[in-house]
Amino acid sequence: MTSTVISAETDIYARRESAARSYCRSFPASFTQAQGARLTDDQGNTYIDFLAGCASLNYGHNDPDLKAALIEHISADGLAHGLDYHNTPKADFLKTFERLILKPRGLDHRVQFTGPTGANAVEAALKLARKVTGRRTVIAFTNGFHGVTMGALAATGNSHHRGGAGGGSLTDVVRMPYDGAFGPEVDTAAQIEAMLDNPSSGIDAPAAFLLEAVQGEGGLNAANPEWLRKIERIARKHGALLIVDDIQAGIGRTGGFFSFEEAGITPDLIPMAKSLSGFGLPMACLLVRPQHDIWAPAEHNGTFRGNVHAFVTARAALVKFWSDKGFQNEVADKAALLTERLQRIAAIIPGASLKGRGMMQGIDVGSGELASEICARCYEDGLIIETSGAHDEVVKVLAPLTIETDLLAHGLDILQAAAGESVCVRALAAE
Amino acid sequence: MTSTVISAETDIYARRESAARSYCRSFPASFTQAQGARLTDDQGNTYIDFLAGCASLNYGHNDPDLKAALIEHISADGLAHGLDYHNTPKADFLKTFERLILKPRGLDHRVQFTGPTGANAVEAALKLARKVTGRRTVIAFTNGFHGVTMGALAATGNSHHRGGAGGGSLTDVVRMPYDGAFGPEVDTAAQIEAMLDNPSSGIDAPAAFLLEAVQGEGGLNAANPEWLRKIERIARKHGALLIVDDIQAGIGRTGGFFSFEEAGITPDLIPMAKSLSGFGLPMACLLVRPQHDIWAPAEHNGTFRGNVHAFVTARAALVKFWSDKGFQNEVADKAALLTERLQRIAAIIPGASLKGRGMMQGIDVGSGELASEICARCYEDGLIIETSGAHDEVVKVLAPLTIETDLLAHGLDILQAAAGESVCVRALAAE
Amino acid sequence: MTSTVISAETDIYARRESAARSYCRSFPASFTQAQGARLTDDQGNTYIDFLAGCASLNYGHNDPDLKAALIEHISADGLAHGLDYHNTPKADFLKTFERLILKPRGLDHRVQFTGPTGANAVEAALKLARKVTGRRTVIAFTNGFHGVTMGALAATGNSHHRGGAGGGSLTDVVRMPYDGAFGPEVDTAAQIEAMLDNPSSGIDAPAAFLLEAVQGEGGLNAANPEWLRKIERIARKHGALLIVDDIQAGIGRTGGFFSFEEAGITPDLIPMAKSLSGFGLPMACLLVRPQHDIWAPAEHNGTFRGNVHAFVTARAALVKFWSDKGFQNEVADKAALLTERLQRIAAIIPGASLKGRGMMQGIDVGSGELASEICARCYEDGLIIETSGAHDEVVKVLAPLTIETDLLAHGLDILQAAAGESVCVRALAAE
Amino acid sequence: MTSTVISAETDIYARRESAARSYCRSFPASFTQAQGARLTDDQGNTYIDFLAGCASLNYGHNDPDLKAALIEHISADGLAHGLDYHNTPKADFLKTFERLILKPRGLDHRVQFTGPTGANAVEAALKLARKVTGRRTVIAFTNGFHGVTMGALAATGNSHHRGGAGGGSLTDVVRMPYDGAFGPEVDTAAQIEAMLDNPSSGIDAPAAFLLEAVQGEGGLNAANPEWLRKIERIARKHGALLIVDDIQAGIGRTGGFFSFEEAGITPDLIPMAKSLSGFGLPMACLLVRPQHDIWAPAEHNGTFRGNVHAFVTARAALVKFWSDKGFQNEVADKAALLTERLQRIAAIIPGASLKGRGMMQGIDVGSGELASEICARCYEDGLIIETSGAHDEVVKVLAPLTIETDLLAHGLDILQAAAGESVCVRALAAE
């Protein structure tokens, strides 16, 4: 298989698509079809997908039941664009979400349909937390990623993305060390508490804490449940809202529907997006505890809040995967397999270590160069896989949760071979 | 027809949807189907749509050719979510956009697929203009609307939306008076030029001017072509980029594909969204002159940049409506009808005047109260129509461009009756 | 007289004084003594002082009565530095200020002794206005100058000084056109009111308007009393405080003790500095209407708030010059002389016009180059005089108010000769 | 002695001085004279001064030699106000400062005379660091105090003072933990380095580090020399300037002329003020390494940069106290006495500990309430002494460095008695 055969299509990209494009540089194939965990390009080559739309395709590509529901809706002239009108698919989604997700978890949150991107849900959360508390400062964390619009960008740690603001103001965010930022022995929550307890620390009373339970772009850093509970307690003590950005880590990716279930905390605001529609369609929402839902009508608005196609597939996904524990159990089994295999692979890479949780795991291989090399080899062998982390030093597995076990194993075989080869080549070169 | 019959569905909204919802308060029906310029609710009532998803449905609901293309794509397991991978529908869209839109208009712009909302395209423009110029200040205009994310919100004039930031910083934007802001006799462009020419004016050298050629939310204020050319000249003279936000006014809404064609200017950056997909699906892009396309890969990114369904319908729409002048001529005829009828309606409302251009026209009825009353009567009679303007004082007609002439006329009959009735009732009440 | 003989002292400046120094570049003499309106350098040359410490020496250098009071105080071991302790000279100053200045003008303001610089008094005003109103935005004006600390710098128009912030944030200030900014026929107050009345203008409700009644650094622009009254009315209508920065234009410079007396307005906050001590000693205060004096103790503090030497001379100056109308009448006579002579000088400069009011007048000679040339010639002939304005195009007369009439006339003779010579040389060069 | 006899003067303060006044609330006497370490009030009571104008009077009140020089200067009609003109006293000060202070310490810095307050020198430093580096972020520390103008206020930690901004923007400062902020065992410098080394930490590349070697207002926290050296190294490594604010801790207060001499570091920028004039007169400067002195003329300016009276006394002080090691040795002896006595006093207060260094020491008594009580008792017994720290929990001794040893001992006797009494009363009350 030769993915280096650049299709004739490519010219148009060079000529007319912005230099901001990126994944297509690592994976230059031109894709035409996709099913489950497999992608096909215009040369007929197939690829195993260990990226899954950056966790936007937790149920894989074109799940047949979701696809059927969507085609039926379109065929019947169901609405595509519904502003924030009432409409049957939206009502059905809300009722199903309430019944299968919120109620069983004791969550009384309301759903705000924001513009259909994760960044927009984070923007809504940042604005609402400030509105509720009358405060301006939001505490965000090292290595956090929350989007690249100017409000959300302020909360994003990555210097590459921050630089995209071209010097425009990224304000009202105070940065604190995430769990483990100074090594496992330093309790950063205690340090944060000391800062906030000190009236001369220079940290103004915060409107909110904004965090991911597992940092996806930041390097698959998984916060300890105990640390999350401490942060929740500190937030409550200081009158700040707790925002858990569950855009990448939520919707089954780390085990439960929400990434924070394990820690037993109750965030005030929860931005959701990515796999929310279940089909890869743009959809986002902010879950808001009722007492904080003080928006005036349309105070946060946007044209595409009512992506009705997405409501249809989102509901179908909830019914198919979250009506009982079956799916969760399956995911847990695959996550166990993943852990085991990644440990074996890490063992052959000097200094490597496992990162992450559930189906959001990877290997810190120590350098971005080595990680990129491994991913490039994988692509040559038909596996799409990416890096993350401050130095792109983590090879990250984000397979669809629905991937067949043997396909998952096959993908991991490719990864293991690529890792082994990369390490050997380096060892030889070093001699 | 009784739209006041609240369906049983409504409970779920009260219980679980955020207070931020708004259109459903004016139009409480629960919609189930839509075709062309007609919506149907769950009670079987039909409505004429003079809102068209706030100009996101310029080609109407569920256009049969676009719908067929979309169903074909989905049925064949075409990608739904494509990150920023190369894929056939994207290449086809780009090639068609180049051939039918950019080339004939002499535009050398590249296309940056941003997150699929207008606000995201504006955010990208604001960031890029700062990056290109190394400056921070962006000049935006009174009554401009550019979205509600924190960067874009800074550029939005409306105090209601600005208040949604809860006191968070909205920075680096300087506000200038739009054309006509101080009456028709004041040349605000000359005042802006005087401010910028004065090194002690306190206005820092701007990175960009950001404006709409016709302000949609701001009250259908249409800038004079001469004023637009002056602003373009001032921007060039001061080394600033010209950003024309064509999200609402573009894609045929005011006559040409772009709203600024008439003025003969060439913006450096053009945010597009709303009707871009042609089907109401979330899609946005930023057109960027090649010399300004200095993004590093992924410097501005986002999960849903590759909404492949939208590429499919967007291309189908270009082919169907922009292959020749037929559609534009049709739109011009309807716009002329609209002008004529609105003039007649305005004539019966004391002090009323026409606003806007093309199929983006309305009547300034002098007060938000009267405008709301007229719209509410329209809804009772099966017409969906909304207000705009700083005081919601403009009744705004945003019908699909594809609306049948007799349906347009029928809708305007309803509007005329509602206006007449509202004026009479008021006159009687005042006696 | 040869001021170009550089004294041996100069080396030390090149070696050890920062490049930020500036006046010494135009006037390179090394001064040793000063009396009234005369300065003497270390070569024995004398100069007429038409700069008066930028209006910090309204009573001239080393006024004998003030000097005697100061020496008496120091000799008796009176306090030099008094923090904000009660002390007799401070009490005496406050009582005299109340009796001779505040009460006769019907002002109930309190005196806040801020750090002893004008910028600090402006900083205190900006902070207090925000504290009182709970709002952030302050409206400042084109060509305004209010100091170069970061808060005050945000309110300063001059791009040279703004650039000194090195890209740091200058925030929360909205810039509006000063009276006459767009020519005499445009009522900028009406435009400002239109902006503030429009809820979609993008201008947030302001905490305060900050302005000078005559703009000193900005080019001796004197606002029309009617315009000042309009701004006061607009401020009240929109719940904003009115801050009149009387640092340069106050203390007799424009006729009355305050520059705004003529307009009959009552500012809420009045920053004072420069000639406040009467002797050129650092001293500043903010006058605050009692209802706005909501500071907590030390909330705005500073080490040198209690410059007791300055209290001593400030009180002596009030007693000497403001006990009756004699001084004001004298100043009015000199101002009339000044106007008459400047008109004659302006008449010989093509396109020149008079600027300013009272003893704060000058000539707009059309270009900074010509203005500098004239000032340089004056210096050669023993007259110290400077330029102001956005382009340094105004030759500005800021003589001590106490200057003897014949010395004033003598200085104006020098100015007239210099202007004539400069104009002739240019005319010849142009032939 | 009854300081509670409120003099008739007091009314005027209530009537006409702003509520921002503060020290006069703790020490309500009205002072008339001062000599060395003694103050006298209008009732003839005398007080020992352990506050020394918050370290602005390191050489005591009205030092006879400085006083004589000043009276001589004034008597001879020497300039009082000299803008930034060359003048003999300024040249003499610069030459003496170069000879006695800069050269012996190997410092090549230039002197920028800023507005005559510490805050202004800090503002100049913040602006210059941003100008030099082209960066915006300044790192400041917990418990730092750098003034209350809006730029400097951003760098101040204290929430009371920060609140004075009334919600205005305090931007572009990132807060880091000072040495010891998380206890003696945590190396905060290492944590800061980890944050800056991480490109995803969210901390933008800093323009500067701004710190005090001993935090005066923050609670007499003395940084370890090793920590200071680490911060210097980190600053250099990351291309940031090192600013040591030596306003309170400098000029002999902690032993050497500069507080950082002991650590052997070379700050790029050094704001100086308080005791710089030696006589309590307003004077400030910023020391700038020559390569960073990139100011354009007047880019940072201000009316009172040339307080010539202060140049006269400042030079006299340098000559008198810094011509040889005698003064420093004396100060060292007194500091040793101070340490010894404070240890004895701390021993009688449960949980108390010593803070600070040199003649800038105090006792952390555990609570602001107890500290205030002790200071109030001292005042009753004729000793002026204040608290500092985030909770005002530190009783701080800032006696003139020139205080006679027996007067210092006498003051400490009063402090000891007051501490003992306060502790006893509390112990009895607790029974």
UniProtKB/TrEMBL annotation, chains A, B, C, D:
**UniProt keyword Manganese present:** no
- List GO BP terms, alphabetically: ectoine biosynthetic process
Q: What is its EC number?
A: 2.6.1.76
| Coiled-coil stretches noted in the UniProt entry, renumbered to this chain | none
Q: Cross-referenced SUPFAM superfamilies, in alphabetical order?
A: PLP-dependent transferases
**CDD domains recorded:** OAT_like
The organism's place on the tree of life at top rank: Bacteria
Its transmembrane ranges are none
The alphabetized UniProt keywords are: Aminotransferase, Pyridoxal phosphate, Transferase
Q: Which Pfam family name is an example for this entry? A: Aminotran_3
Can you name one GO molecular function term for this protein?
A: diaminobutyrate-2-oxoglutarate transaminase activity
Q: What class of enzyme is it?
A: transferase
Q: Which cofactor names does the annotation list?
A: pyridoxal 5'-phosphate
According to UniProt, this protein's pathway is: Amine and polyamine biosynthesis; ectoine biosynthesis; L-ectoine from L-aspartate 4-semialdehyde: step 1/3
Please state which protein family the record places this protein in: Belongs to the class-III pyridoxal-phosphate-dependent aminotransferase family.
NCBIfam families attached to this UniProt entry: dat, ectoine_ectB, PRK09264.1
Its protein name is Diaminobutyrate--2-oxoglutarate transaminase
